[in-house]
Amino acid sequence: MAFTAPASDRAITLHYDDLPADLTFGRSVAVDTETMGLNPHRDRLCVVQVSAGDGKAHLVHLRPTHLGGKGYDCPHLKRLLADSSITKIMHFARFDVAILQHVLGITVHPVVCTKIAARLVRTFTDRHGLASLCRELLGIELNKQQQTSDWGSAVLTPEQRLYAASDVLYLHALWEKMEALLLRENRRDIAQACFDFLPTRARLDLLGYEEPDIFSHRG
Asked: Is 208 left (phi over 0), alpha (psi -120 to 50) or beta?
């Protein structure tokens, strides 16, 4: 039976404009983003949330200068996301990698993506969203009501903070489940090849090559 993820601010730390210099995350970090929309060239990156898989989430609220912030002057966050010794765990990494690379001017690697993994091994279903996977594999019910809220606000509501945190708090546990399934189905290697390609796939998207598909025979 699914249960509701804990609705508590105690597991959430909100940072403005950057992460603290002395914050560490170990060998892997869960990462997600909140934006004003789904067009990296048009829509502002507002929040980057990260977790070490320890039940705690850190939210970096990136405020533009006219709202009292520092824009994308966030060297500690950039260093974490570009660190090649730390694996970034994401869900639908194609978008998050693209927006982070475009806005922050870094290459985000290495990356693993639970959505790609789900598509490779859960071929018996078309339910590959984070909420569905958390419900079916972890027994955790995520509240997605704030997904389309206004993330550009100068102040995040408690509901937005809880929503953002929930998108990273369970990614380590979910990746553990997904990696076991990839190994079971002998698809770990092809998944890794997909993950390794993500920074390049993001660059292609940013260049406008979502369509036409350059790998297609058509045309």
From this structure: left
Q: How many CB atoms lie within 10 A of CB 164?
A: 26
Both tokens of 19, joined, read 């992460």
Q: Which residues of 190-217 are buried (b: 16+ CB within 10 A; e: fewer)?
A: ebeebbeebbebbebbbeeeeeeeeeee
Residue 7: band (very low, low, confident or very high) from pLDDT cuts 50, 70, 90: very low
CATH C-level class of 11-146+155-206: alpha beta
CA distance 12 to 56: 6
Q: How far is the C-alpha of 62 from the C-alpha of 47, rounded, in Å?
A: 6
On whether the CB atoms of residues 47 and 96 are closer than 8 A, the answer is no
**Number of other CB atoms surrounding residue 143 within 10 Å:** 14
Taking every pair of C-alpha atoms in the chain, what is the biggest distance, in angstroms?
55
Local confidence band at 144 (pLDDT 50, 70, 90 cut-offs):
confident
pTM of the model: 0.93
What is the identity of the amino acid at 30?
A
Lateral strand order in the sheet of 45-51: 12-16, 57-61, 45-51, 28-35, 87-90, 111-113
Helix (H, G, I), strand (E, B) or coil at 174: helix
Provide the token pair at 180: 């076991």
